[in-house]
Design a protein that fits this description.
Structural class: alpha/beta
Shape: globular
Bound molecules: phosphoenolpyruvate, magnesium ion
CATH class of the largest domain: Alpha Beta
Distance between the termini: 37 Å
Oligomer: single chain
CATH superfamily of the largest domain: Phosphoenolpyruvate-binding domains
CATH topology of the largest domain: TIM Barrel
Number of strands: 16
Radius of gyration: 26 Å
C-alpha cells in the first residue's frame, strides 16, 4: 500500500511503525463487588506509571537538562501523594467505586483546587495532576499512552499531528522519521524535522488510520510517499535511491568551507534558521555564513514558565558567541498559530493564524516583551546582533516596538548595565508590509521575508491545512512580484533584504530569488550546502533575465517549468 503526502524533510528510512496516539479515556461508573481486586489493580497501575515516569525523567536528563527532568520529580510526588491515595481508597471502600472511577474523581478534585488558587505556580500544578492521572488511568483501563521519550528501538512515528514540542522530544537515535495526517511543508514540525535531519512526510490525510502498530514502512521524504509492508525488492530499490542521495550529499559537502559565489563571481550570503542554541552544531557543520532567523519561541515552548531575562540572555549570548562576528538575526517571540505555550492562557480564536499573536500579543503584554528586549540588548555586546520583529502589519506597530526597545535601553543605562550596537529589522510576512515596503524601509535596518506566512496570507490558505496545501505556491508570479517590490524598496533605501521562509532553500525558487537581487538566503542548515552547490553553477546575470521572465508569467507551474528548463541547459 502506498500513501501519498507532502514531502517535508529529505531522506529515506525503513523501520517499524510507532503510532503516537492520544488515548481515549472512558470511565464507567459501575460499582465494584470486589474491593480488594480494585486495590490490587490500582497498585499495579501505580507501579507501571511510576516506572514510566522514572524512565522519562532519565531520558529527559540525557536529552535535555536537569530543569526539565525536575518536572517528572513533581509527577512522582503527585503519584505517591499519600492524601490522594487515602481518598481513593476511601471512595473504593465506602462507596464501592471501581478503581478508575475513584482515582479520576479524586485527582480531578485536586486539579480543580489547584486551578482555583491565586498563585500562578500552583495553578500550573493542575496540569501536572491531570497528566499523572491520565497515565494511571491508561494503565487501569488498558489503554496505550504513547510517549515519544519512551521510544527505545528504531521506529517511524505515525501521528495525526505532531506539535513542535512533541517533535523536540523525538530522539534521532531511534526515530527514523515521521508521517502525519495533517500539516504542510511549512508547519513547524516539518521545519523541525529538517533541522533534526530526519525524513518526514506530512499532510497524508489518513495515515494513522491506514497503518498498524509494528507494520514495516518505507518513508520516502524526498517524494512525499510512504509504502506499507513492502517486499524485499522494493526495500532494495529504495536503498539504492537512498545511496544516491547520500552520494549527492557527499558532493555538496565539498562546499562546506567555501564562500557562496556564482559563476560570474557575485557573492551572496547563505544563513541558517535555528530554534535553539542546540542547533548550532548543525549550523557550523553545514558552513552557514550567519544565522538569518533564531526562532526564540522554542525557548519559551520548551519551558514550564516564561524564561527569565537571565535565561534568555544566556541563550542569546551562547548563539552570538558561537557565531563570532557573523550576523545573528534573533526574532522576538512569535507565539500563536501552531505554536502555543502550556503556561500562557490564550483564548481559543476562530482564526489563530490571523489572531492576537506574535508582535500583537507582545505589544499588549509589554512586561513579557520587555523582559525579552532587555535580554537581547544586554546580549548585543557579544556579537553581531540583529533584532527582528515578527508579524508586523503597520508602521505604528513597528514604531511601538522600537519605542519599547528605546525604553529598555534607557532603563539599562540607568542601571549601569552595558550593551553594544545592534540592528533592528522586521519580518515581511504580511502582504500589507510588502506593499508598503518603501515606507517601512525608511525605518528599519533590514528586511527578512517570511514566505511561510506571506504565502498563506496572500493566498488566504492556512499553512496547516493539507486540503488547501495546493495553494502553497512559492513560484506564483503574485508572490514573486511582492518579493521584488520588497527587495527593490530596500535597495533604494540602502538596506538589505533576506528571506527566512522555507522558500529561500527551495531549489527551484532560489535561482529566481538570486535574479531578483535577494541579499541573504536563510534556510534549514541542511539545505545550505546543496544551495551553495547550485549557485556555483549559476550566473547572476542570467538569473536576472530569468527572474524578469518569471514575474511576467501567469502561473506557479509556468514558472516552475521555466526554471527547470533553464537549469537543464
Ligand atoms: C515565515 O513565516 O516565513 C517564517 C520564517 O516564520 P515562521 O515559519 O516561524 O512563521
Ligand atoms: Mg512567520
Amino acid at each position: 500500500m502506498k500513501i501519498k503526502g507532502i514531502a517535508a524533510s529529505d531522506g529515506i528510512s525503513v523501520a517499524k511503525v510507532y503510532k503516537l496516539i492520544s488515548p481515549t479515556i472512558i470511565i464507567n461508573e459501575d460499582l465494584t463487588t470486589d474491593k480488594g481486586e480494585e486495590i490490587v489493580k490500582l497498585d499495579e497501575a501505580f507501579l507501571k506509571a511510576s516506572k514510566e515516569i522514572e524512565k522519562i525523567k532519565e531520558k529527559t536528563l540525557i536529552n535535555l537538562d536537569e530543569e526539565h527532568a525536575m518536572i517528572f520529580d513533581a509527577h512522582l510526588q503527585i503519584l505517591n501523594d499519600p492524601e490522594i491515595r487515602r481518598q481513593v481508597l476511601e471512595e473504593i471502600d465506602n462507596k464501592s467505586y471501581n478503581a478508575a472511577f475513584a482515582y479520576s474523581n479524586v485527582t480531578e478534585t485536586f486539579a480543580m483546587i489547584f486551578e482555583a488558587m491565586d498563585n500562578e505556580y500552583m495553578r500550573e500544578r493542575a496540569m501536572d495532576v491531570r497528566d499523572v492521572s491520565r497515565r494511571v488511568l491508561c494503565h487501569l483501563l488498558g489503554e496505550k499512552m504513547s510517549d515519544p521519550t519512551l521510544i527505545d528501538e528504531e521506529v517511524i512515528v505515525v501521528a495525526n499531528d505532531l506539535t513542535p514540542s512533541d517533535t523536540a522530544q523525538l530522539d534521532k537515535k531511534y526515530v527514523k522519521g515521521f508521517i502525519t495526517n495533517i500539516g504542510g511543508r511549512t508547519s513547524h514540525s516539518a521545519i523541525m524535522a529538517r533541522s533534526l535531519e530526519i525524513p518526514a512526510v506530512v499532510g497524508t490525510g489518513d495515515v494513522l488510520q491506514k497503518v498498524n502498530e509494528g507494520d514495516i514502512i518505507i518513508l520516502d521524504g524526498i517524494n512525499g510517499e510512504a509504502i506499507v509492508n513492502p517486499n524485499k525488492e522494493l526495500i532494495a530499490e529504495y536503498k539504492k535511491i537512498n545511496d544516491e542521495f547520500t552520494k549527492q550529499k557527499e558532493v555538496w559537502s565539498k562546499f562546506k568551507d567555501k564562500k557562496t559565489t556564482t559563476l560570474d563571481d557575485v557573492e551572496v550570503e547563505l544563513a541558517a534558521n535555528i530554534g535553539s542554541p542546540d542547533d548550532l552544531e548543525g549550523v557550523l557543520n553545514n558552513g552557514a555564513e550567519g544565522i538569518g532567523l533564531y526562532r526564540t519561541e522554542f525557548l519559551y515552548m520548551n519551558n514550564s514558565d516564561f524564561p527569565t531575562e537571565n535565561e534568555q540572555f544566556e541563550a542569546y549570548k551562547k548563539v552570538l558567541d558561537a557565531m563570532g562576528d557573523k550576523k545573528v538575526v534573533i526574532r522576538t517571540l512569535d507565539i500563536g498559530g501552531d505554536k502555543e505555550l502550556n503556561y500562557l492562557e490564550m483564548p481559543k480564536e476562530m482564526n489563530p493564524f490571523l489572531g492576537h499573536r506574535a508582535l500583537r500579543l507582545c505589544l499588549d503584554k509589554t512586561d513579557l516583551f520587555k523582559t525579552q528586549l532587555r535580554a537581547l540588548i544586554r546580549a548585543s555586546e557579544f556579537g553581531n546582533l540583529h533584532v527582528m520583529f515578527p508579524m508586523v502589519a503597520t508602521i505604528e506597530e513597528l514604531r511601538s516596538a522600537k519605542a519599547l526597545l528605546k525604553e529598555c535601553e534607557e532603563e539599562l543605562t540607568k542601571e549601569n548595565v552595558s550593551f553594544g550596537d545592534y540592528k533592528v529589522g522586521i519580518m515581511v510576512e504580511i502582504p500589507a508590509v510588502a506593499i508598503l515596503a518603501d515606507q517601512f524601509a525608511k525605518e528599519v535596518d533590514f528586511f527578512s521575508i517570511g514566505t511561510n506566512d506571506l504565502i498563506q496570507y496572500t493566498f488566504a490558505a492556512d499553512r496547516m491545512n493539507e486540503k488547501v496545501s495546493y495553494l502553497y505556491q512559492p513560484y506564483n508570479p503574485s508572490i514573486l512580484r511582492l518579493i521584488k517590490m520588497v527587495i527593490d524598496a530596500s535597495h533604494k533605501e540602502g538596506i538589505w533584504t533576506g528571506m527566512c521562509g522555507e522558500m529561500a532553500g527551495d531549489q527551484i525558487a532560489a535561482p529566481i530569488l538570486l535574479g531578483l537581487g535577494l541579499d541573504e538566503f536563510s534556510m534549514s542548515a541542511t539545505s545550505i550546502l546543496r544551495t551553495r552547490h547550485l549557485f556555483s553553477d549559476l550566473s547572476k546575470n542570467d538569473m536576472e533575465k530569468l527572474a524578469q521572465e518569471a514575474v511576467n508569467l501567469a502561473t506557479n507551474e509556468e514558472v516552475k517549468n521555466l526554471v527547470k528548463s533553464n537549469l537543464k541547459k
